[in-house]
Amino acid sequence: MAEVSNYLREYETIYVLKPDLEDSKVIEVAERMRGVVEQQGGKSIKIHNWGKKKLAYEVDKVQKGVYIYHHYLGGPRLVAEYERVLKIMDEALIYQTARLADAVDANSRAVEPDVLTAPVRDPGKRDRDHEHDDRPRAAVEHGEESPQAAAEAPWQSSQGDDDSPHPAPGAGEEPNASAAPEAAEKWEE
Fold it and tell me: Percent of the chain, pLDDT > 70?
């Protein structure tokens, strides 16, 4: 293993592996990438298996993949070697590397525990971005307000509830079709 210099660049790489890989093979690939970092004189901070997710777009006729996040420190040549290894690896579909910082003291950065096993998903939960939203899918797509949001911020609801600190315009007035132009003038003043 090469000696770690005091000041290195901070990088993060997210790579996506084929979805049909077994957990043992995913761990093997992650350990191999850790080895590349250490061989190039870098320091691996954390590897996190984000699990199988849907890709934003199809890659090689594949719609899902196993996402791996790797946070590490290293020199400028490390990224080129890291991405070269990913490129020739059959298991990897796509990857993206970002430089987070320059001149980071390697001795001041603690190594965080890795999460190499995929997260367990609740089979009853839909794989959507609306995890905390209890509205039906049609309500989400049409932008309807959730009951949860209305309870948290009643003054923002359009219904003008009596207990709201800021009632909606026209709340408490008798609805009258002929008075609509007068009501508009009244609110403009």
Answer: 61
- Sequence ranges of the domains in the chain: 7-108
- Determine the pLDDT at residue 170: 54
Three-state SS for 185?
helix
CA distances from 70 to 57, 148, 178 (A): 22, 36, 66
Closest C-alpha to 53, from 39, 34, 68: 68
pLDDT at 165 over 70: no
pLDDT band at 94, cuts 50/70/90?
very high
7-108, CATH topology level:
Alpha-Beta Plaits (3.30.70)
**What span, in angstroms and rounded, lies between the C-alpha atoms of 147 and 143?**
12
Burial (0-12, 13-18, 19+ Cβ within 10 Å), 74: buried
Separation of alpha carbons 155 and 163, rounded Å: 9
Q: CB of 127 within 8 A of CB of 121?
A: yes
